[in-house]
């Protein structure tokens, strides 16, 4: 068995937990591979071993049985840029706070690792979005699991985002920005701006304005078979765009379009996890004295 690990910087409070996970997987005689950035953090905590292989975003990791992330949802989003179209499934172990993707907590780690060892799990395939831009941005990782955003770059006046669906004009958003979310990303930035919760297999994009000037402008859900195109105007000629947690500054004029990515990401689904249960827990649904 060959298992990859990816994470972000961690403090001493998580040191013993991460050591326990690595030692447990090592006890299976599994080959452990760690991302280049995570290897630095492990080395700082004296947890990196010479037997561990190190990979980066240009390494072919398709021979991994799975990739385990240690952190929160942001860590999974970052791990997606390593996995790409390799089809390697991801298991998120939560050492962070509010999460919808890394649903395996510390208290359930033994049961989760047993499932991994016995290969007792299924897959939850999630759609991604793809950004086409001229001139190009984000290099060869121009895809996102959660969302794409267009935002004003400073404290200047709002921007205007002219939006088209399959080259048919939809609206000119006078706002601080616009979010295009996948169903997975509907519980991220989009929901904070008033967007709806959309179930993962819904085959949609959600277009959500950020602080729109006109209060009658509402989020809209469209098919993910559509091509979305954006033209930006503003007093400032610089704008921010993002794919998940990765940001770039772009200049006017720039052509931006969003489509569904040609591949999907596989999240490992353990037997006791389901999306609706996660929604109830994370959004505190049902917390009422009548229940």
CATH class label of the largest domain: Alpha Beta
Give the end-to-end Cα distance, rounded to a whole number of Å.
45 Å
Alpha-beta content class:
alpha+beta
Query: CATH topology of the largest domain, which one?
Result: Rossmann fold
Shape summary: globular
Percent of residues in helical segments? 10-25%
Q: How many distinct domains?
A: 2
Radius of gyration over all CA atoms, rounded = 20 Å
- For this structure, what is the CATH homologous superfamily of the largest domain? Probable inorganic polyphosphate/atp-NAD kinase, domain 1
Contiguous uncertain segments of 5+ residues: none
Instruction: Report the average pLDDT across residues.
Output: 90
Strand order of the largest sheet: 7-6-17-14-9-10
What is the strand and helix layout of this fold?
Elements: E1 2-7, H1 15-26, E2 31-35, H2 36-44, E3 53-55, E4 66-71, H3 73-83, E5 90-94, H4 109-118, E6 122-134, E7 143-144, E8 147-152, E9 159-165, E10 168-175, E11 177-181, H5 189-192, E12 204-210, E13 220-223, E14 228-233, E15 238-243, E16 246-251, E17 255-269, H6 275-282
Parallel strand pairs: 1-2, 1-4, 2-3, 4-5
Antiparallel strand pairs: 6-7, 6-17, 8-11, 8-15, 9-10, 9-14, 11-12, 12-13, 14-17, 15-16
């Amino acid at each position: 068995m060959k298992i990859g690990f990816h994470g972000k910087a961690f403090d001493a409070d998580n040191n013993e937990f991460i050591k326990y996970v690595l030692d447990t997987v090592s006890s299976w005689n599994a080959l452990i591979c760690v991302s280049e950035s995570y290897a630095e953090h492990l080395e700082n905590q004296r947890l990196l071993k010479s037997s561990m292989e190190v990979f980066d975003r240009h390494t072919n990791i398709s021979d991994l049985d799975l990739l385990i992330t240690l952190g929160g949802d942001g860590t999974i989003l970052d791990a997606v840029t390593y996995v790409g179209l390799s089809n390697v499934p991801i298991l998120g172990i939560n050492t962070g706070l509010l999460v919808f993707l890394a649903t395996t907590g510390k208290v359930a780690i033994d049961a989760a690792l047993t499932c991994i060892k016995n290969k007792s799990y299924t897959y939850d395939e999630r759609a991604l979005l793809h950004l086409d831009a001229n001139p190009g941005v984000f290099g060869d990782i121009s895809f996102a699991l959660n969302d794409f955003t267009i935002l004003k770059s400073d404290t200047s006046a709002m921007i205007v985002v002219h939006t088209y669906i399959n080259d048919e004009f939809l609206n000119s958003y006078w706002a601080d920005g616009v979010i295009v979310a996948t169903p997975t990303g509907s519980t991220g930035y989009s929901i904070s701006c008033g967007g709806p919760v959309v179930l993962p297999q819904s085959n949609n994009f959600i277009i959500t304005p950020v602080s729109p000037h006109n209060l009658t402008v509402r989020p809209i859900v469209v098919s993910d078979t559509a091509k979305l195109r954006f033209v930006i105007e503003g007093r400032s000629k610089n704008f921010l765009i993002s794919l998940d947690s990765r940001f770039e500054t772009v200049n006017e004029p720039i052509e931006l379009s969003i489509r569904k990515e040609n591949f999907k990401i596989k999240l490992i689904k353990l037997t006791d996890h389901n999306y609706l249960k996660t929604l109830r827990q994370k959004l505190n649904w049902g917390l009422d004295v009548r229940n």
